[in-house]
From TrEMBL:
<feature type="domain" description="3-octaprenyl-4-hydroxybenzoate carboxy-lyase-like Rift-related">
    <location>
        <begin position="40"/>
        <end position="228"/>
    </location>
</feature>
<dbReference type="GO" id="GO:0016831">
    <property type="term" value="F:carboxy-lyase activity"/>
</dbReference>
<dbReference type="InterPro" id="IPR048304">
    <property type="entry name" value="UbiD_Rift_dom"/>
</dbReference>
<feature type="domain" description="3-octaprenyl-4-hydroxybenzoate carboxy-lyase-like C-terminal">
    <location>
        <begin position="232"/>
        <end position="353"/>
    </location>
</feature>
<keyword id="KW-0464">Manganese</keyword>
<dbReference type="Pfam" id="PF01977">
    <property type="entry name" value="UbiD"/>
</dbReference>
<comment type="pathway">
    <text>Isoprenoid biosynthesis; isopentenyl diphosphate biosynthesis via mevalonate pathway.</text>
</comment>
<dbReference type="InterPro" id="IPR002830">
    <property type="entry name" value="UbiD"/>
</dbReference>
<comment type="function">
    <text>Catalyzes the conversion of trans-anhydromevalonate 5-phosphate (tAHMP) into isopentenyl phosphate. Involved in the archaeal mevalonate (MVA) pathway, which provides fundamental precursors for isoprenoid biosynthesis, such as isopentenyl diphosphate (IPP) and dimethylallyl diphosphate (DMAPP).</text>
</comment>
<dbReference type="GO" id="GO:0008299">
    <property type="term" value="P:isoprenoid biosynthetic process"/>
</dbReference>
<dbReference type="GO" id="GO:0005737">
    <property type="term" value="C:cytoplasm"/>
</dbReference>
<comment type="similarity">
    <text>Belongs to the UbiD family.</text>
</comment>
<keyword id="KW-0210">Decarboxylase</keyword>
<keyword id="KW-0414">Isoprene biosynthesis</keyword>
<dbReference type="Pfam" id="PF20696">
    <property type="entry name" value="UbiD_C"/>
</dbReference>
<keyword id="KW-0288">FMN</keyword>
<keyword id="KW-0285">Flavoprotein</keyword>
Length: 371
């Protein structure tokens, strides 16, 4: 666990200070080099007799529906389309897993296309690989570009090798080869998701595992649901999207999805305010960029967005409730929000905690002189 358990570790991987993570991620295009190779250390051990119970698949919380694979990258191929993304995978037998597929994301769409033709969707589940690949497959890049994005992030090619079912995967500790059944679905859940609360039980597709390949003495990678690594990998990929969207309407300086907001539901956006209205424009742009976002606070350059006390100071001293708070009812929210309506809608709140430009002197923060 905790290959990428903090922003400091992510910053180290990217070779930038923590405050520069979002700028770096916003600059990277998914155009790195991917190479197909014939050999891999993952092929050191090949098991055709599948028994997933031999893996240390964990039950994390008392009400979990079953043990869960939580760090599995599901690589799928259908026609000319390839996708790689992290999905929670519930152990359902010695050779079966239930997979949570969220519409309208790419794996869901590929499975839907295959199922419409009554065809299985070939998949390979990758466990334990380069952290840049793990991060890249948790992002929202164009379909089929996850490995190119990883290569661009690491500044070196990503090597893929072909599994027995034709799916191409990176070198890893363990790979589970199989297919998603076009028809079969079973109860999946309960499972603790990003909010630290239990997600509901749903009927989800079944993956049949046909072969297991792994290194000798492989290391099993797991992610603690709602733990630091889960928060980081689920939340940070949305920050560049918000950064770019806000940058279209005003001068954006930085973005953070806060830990207290589950790195998913709450954001703080720092802008260089130039005209009145910039704050509210930034609010609307942030909500458009991340539809699961529930509350967003817009602050000035002098506020440290990584310090919750500084953000609260901005709200306390720069917000007039009837003017600076934007309430948007009955809009699409997150299925993971326990307070969301059954139809998926919620009420969103944007707070413009920026200074009033014509009254800037009223907001000057006192500084102790050096001498």
């Amino acid at each position: 666990m905790n290959l990428l358990g903090s922003r400091d570790e992510l910053a180290s991987m990217l070779g930038v200070p923590k405050e520069e993570i979002i700028r770096r991620l916003s600059e990277v295009s998914p155009e790195g080099e991917v190479r197909l190779v014939s050999e891999s250390p993952t092929l050191e051990v090949i098991e055709d007799q599948v028994d997933l119970t031999k893996l240390p698949i964990l039950t994390h919380f008392e009400k979990d529906g079953a043990p869960y694979i939580t760090a599995g990258i599901v690589v799928s191929e259908y026609g000319d389309t390839i996708n790689a993304s992290i999905h929670r995978l519930m152990l359902a037998g010695k050779d079966k897993l239930a997979v949570r597929l969220v519409p309208p994301r790419h794996t869901y769409l590929l499975h839907k296309k295959a199922a419409e033709k009554s065809e299985p969707l070939p998949v390979a589940i990758v466990l334990g690989c380069d952290p840049t690949i793990i991060y890249a497959t948790s992002t929202r890049v164009p379909v089929g570009k996850e490995f190119e994005y990883a290569a661009a992030l690491r500044g070196a090619p990503v090597e893929l090798f072909e599994c027995a079912n034709g799916v191409k995967v990176p070198h890893a500790e363990i790979v589970l080869e199989g297919y998603i059944d076009p028809v079969e679905k079973i109860d999946e859940g309960p499972f603790v998701d990003i909010t630290g609360t239990y997600d509901v039980i749903r009927k989800e597709p079944v993956i049949h595992i046909t072969r297991v390949i792994h290194r000798k003495d492989p290391i099993y990678h797991g992610i603690l649901p709602a733990g630091p690594e889960h928060l980081l990998m689920m939340g940070v990929p949305y920050e560049p999207r918000i950064y770019r969207a806000v940058g279209e309407v005003t001068t954006v300086k930085n973005v953070v999805l806060t830990e207290g907001g589950c790195c998913y539901l709450h954001a703080v956006v720092q802008i260089e305010k130039q005209t009145e209205g910039d704050g509210k424009n930034a609010i609307m742009a942030a909500f458009a960029a991340h539809t699961s976002l529930k509350h967003v606070v817009i602050v000035d350059e002098d506020i440290n967005i990584f310090d919750p006390n500084d953000v609260e100071f901005a709200i306390a001293t720069r917000v007039k409730g009837d003017v600076d708070i934007l309430i948007i009812p009955n809009v699409r929210g997150s299925s993971l929000d326990p307070r969301g309506a059954p139809d998926g809608t919620t009420t969103k709140v944007g707070i413009d905690a920026t200074k009033v430009l014509i009254e800037k002197e009223n907001f000057e923060r006192a500084v102790i002189p050096e001498e």
